[in-house]
UniProtKB/TrEMBL annotation:
GO terms for MF: single-stranded DNA binding
Gene3D superfamilies: 3.40.1360.10, DNA primase, catalytic core, N-terminal domain
Database matches in InterPro entries: ArdC_N, DNA_primase_core_N_sf, DNAG_N, DnaG_primase, TOPRIM_DnaG_bac, TOPRIM_dom
Any single GO CC term annotated in Swiss-Prot or TrEMBL for this entry: cytoplasm
Renumbered residue ranges of the record's region Disordered: 242-263, 581-620
GO biological process entries: DNA replication, synthesis of primer
Protein name, entry field: DNA primase
Domain Toprim: 412-478
Record domain N-terminal: where: 19-80
Residue ranges of every copy of the DNA primase DNAG catalytic core N-terminal domain listed in the record: 290-401
Length: 620
């Protein structure tokens, strides 16, 4: 019966997609529904709308937590959970209890969107009488004659472009049309409705941008676009909440007369880091660093493209240069550029090749330094934690990889800077990123999910082929439990890393190894089995394997269980019992609806409670 219901829901979803494609279900209506209950995923936006008109949809437990109860006799709205199984939700009209106030904006829409733009380091020019001398790519000019609501919608459209399309604004240099326009207009409309503006996008017929040739799979295109819109809207909604906590422009104006004007603390740090990067880049050409990189196979043009720099040997080169520019010592220390010990200040990076680590907005927030060949100190040195450099919440190369990821390249997670460069130069189909001196975290995977679609195809984990790299690959799986796409893994041969392979075998050798991927879950299970047998502790291996199957491989649990049973030479029923035990703790919480799958045709593994792991990568 459950399988019959699941099949029925999938059939209804496909029928609704066909209605959207034919124009029977207007895209404007779909966008309105995405604004109302898009948090359940695009497939469920279609499913819910096909069953009844709703205003606020929640699970039974969520209504209970909100102080309202679902009335007896109410028929549930059936949706698909993240693992593709039927679940029940109910509309506000099906409940009784204290009045529930739907979200409303605390600020006028224009002020809210402008605050959001400011939080993303944009300069909003609405009739300014003075010349803007900053970064042109960070300037948004509001056309004259727009009232506040129209200006808010225009700015929301620009922010949508920024999130959706490689961080670029629609500056008029290219035509905003086709799928790109549909996505930006739809996200802007969702944000506008969040702020109380009853605005829906006027779009061309869906068939004009999704296509009509069955070979181009127009229904999948609609699903994909819907998922991208929901993800981008979720990012902007989240940032709206953050920006809402900032004081309004009027409040700032009122306090200006009472407090001296001061640069925001984070902005001062970012300016110092930007100046430091310029200092390092200026000293790069005459250092040992260009020759070293050239010998490793990285062309001079690519070194310049990645904006590599050099921190000169000596104790105060950067310190003296930046203090002479007016940067206070306290700012340089807080930015992680200078240390003070026993009353003496000195540079953090000395005689090192340095590369910038950028935020998702492209600002330099820290550095990774590589020691000269033959140096006896640490090979790699990262900036210390600062207010703008949170190692566990950053990925080296993510900003640089954004164009390739937006074009459909598969993300590859590597250990170090040169590994990322090697893969970037070897394959247009792959885009490499690296943790910044930490073990991979769920926050970093979340960042990656914001830049690439991980719902249909997960990232590829490519760690070093030495013992530490193989162990790290086996332990890091817990960071991927929220990824519904398949996660692949590669361990390079003979204790090599991608940069070594690039040096000795060139791009062809790197591409060959990238094609040798296995499912990460298979690697994890084989490692658990091997370690358990080596220690003479198969019970521990069984527990580890069961936890991994529940976290990553539940949708193929039977096949994975057979692999474990064969590897440990035990009764398959013993593996099954451990799987049930591993799955049992969150059973009570499973009544709360997990966010739905973004497509109607996938069957990804469900989320598991967030966990941390203790692995440490050998280098950034």
């Amino acid at each position: 019966m459950r399988n019959d219901l699941e099949a029925l829901l999938r059939t209804i979803t496909r029928q609704e997609l066909e209605r959207v494609h034919r124009g029977e279900l207007a895209w404007e209506t779909v966008v309105e529904r995405m604004a109302a209950y898009g948090r359940y995923g695009f497939a469920n936006v279609l499913l819910i709308g096909a069953q009844r008109e709703v205003t606020d949809v929640r699970t039974f437990e969520e209504w209970k937590a909100a102080g309202r109860r679902v009335r007896k006799g109410e028929h549930a709205i059936r949706v698909l959970s993240r693992q593709g199984k039927p679940r029940s939700v109910f509309d506000l009209a099906q409940t009784s209890g204290p009045e529930t106030v739907l979200g409303t904006a605390d600020r006028p829409a224009w002020q809210s969107v402008k605050a959001l733009a400011t939080s993303r380091r944009l300069f909003v020019d609405r009739g300014s009488t003075w010349s803007y001398l900053g970064d042109p790519s960070k300037r948004v000019v509001i056309p004259p004659g727009l009232d506040d609501d129209a200006a808010a919608l225009f700015l929301a459209h620009q922010l949508a472009h920024m999130v959706l399309h490689r961080g670029e604004l629609d500056d008029g240099s290219r035509v905003c049309a086709g799928i790109g326009k549909v996505e930006a207009d739809s996200v802007a409309a969702i944000v506008a409705r969040e702020l109380g503006l009853p605005i829906t996008p006027a779009t061309a017929p869906v068939s004009s941008w999704a296509g009509t040739d069955p070979r181009s799979r127009p229904l999948k295109t609609i699903e994909h676009v819907g998922g991208r819109i929901l993800r981008a809207a979720a990012v902007l909604r989240r940032d709206l909440q953050k920006a809402a906590n900032e004081p309004t422009a009027e409040a700032k104006d009122r306090s200006a007369a009472e407090e001296p004007t001061a640069e925001p603390p984070d902005r001062a740090l970012l300016e110092a880091l930007k100046a430091a990067h310029l200092f390092f880049v200026g000293r790069f050409p005459t250092s040992w660093a260009p020759g070293y990189l050239t010998r490793r196979g990285f062309p001079e043009a690519y070194q310049l493209q990645r904006q590599a720099g050099y921190a000169p040997n000596g104790w105060r080169g950067l310190l003296d240069a930046l203090t002479s520019q007016g940067f206070p010592l306290e700012t340089l220390v807080e930015a992680g550029l200078v240390k003070v010990r026993n009353g003496r200040a000195f540079d953090v990076f000395r005689d090192r090749l340095v590369v910038p680590v950028r935020s998702e907005h492209g600002e330099v927030v820290g550095f990774i330094g590589r020691a000269a060949p033959g140096d006896t100190g640490p090979k790699y040195l990262n900036s210390p934690e600062t207010p703008v450099y949170k190692k566990g919440a950053l990925l080296y190369g993510l900003h640089e990889a954004a164009p390739k990821l937006a074009a459909g390249a598969r993300p590859v997670i590597v250990e170090g800077v040169l590994d990322a460069w090697a893969i970037d130069l070897s394959s247009d189909a792959h885009a490499a990123v690296a943790p910044s001196g930490t073990a991979l975290t769920e926050d970093q995977v979340g960042l990656l999910a914001g830049a690439a679609d991980l719902t249909t195809r997960g990232p590829l984990l490519a760690l070093d082929g030495d013992t530490a790299g193989r162990r790290a690959t086996a332990r890091v799986w817990k960071a991927f439990t929220q990824v519904s796409g398949n996660v692949g893994a590669i361990c390079f041969p003979d204790s090599q890393d991608p940069a070594d392979l690039f040096l000795h075998h060139g791009p062809v050798g790197v591409r060959h190894e990238l094609a040798q991927e296995r499912d990460l879950i298979e690697h994890v299970l084989d490692a658990a089995i091997a370690e358990g047998l080596a220690r003479g502790d198969p019970a521990s291996a069984l527990r580890t394997a069961a936890e991994a199957i529940i976290g990553l491989g539940r949708h193929n649990a039977a096949r994975h269980a057979a692999r474990v049973a064969q590897g440990l030479d035990i009764d398959p029923r013993e593996v099954t019992r451990h799987l049930i035990n591993a799955a049992s703790p969150p059973a009570r919480a499973s009544e709360t609806f997990p966010l739905a799958a973004t497509t109607a045709h996938t069957d990804p593994p469900p989320p598991t409670p967030k966990t941390r792991h203790d692995s440490r990568s050998r280098r950034p």
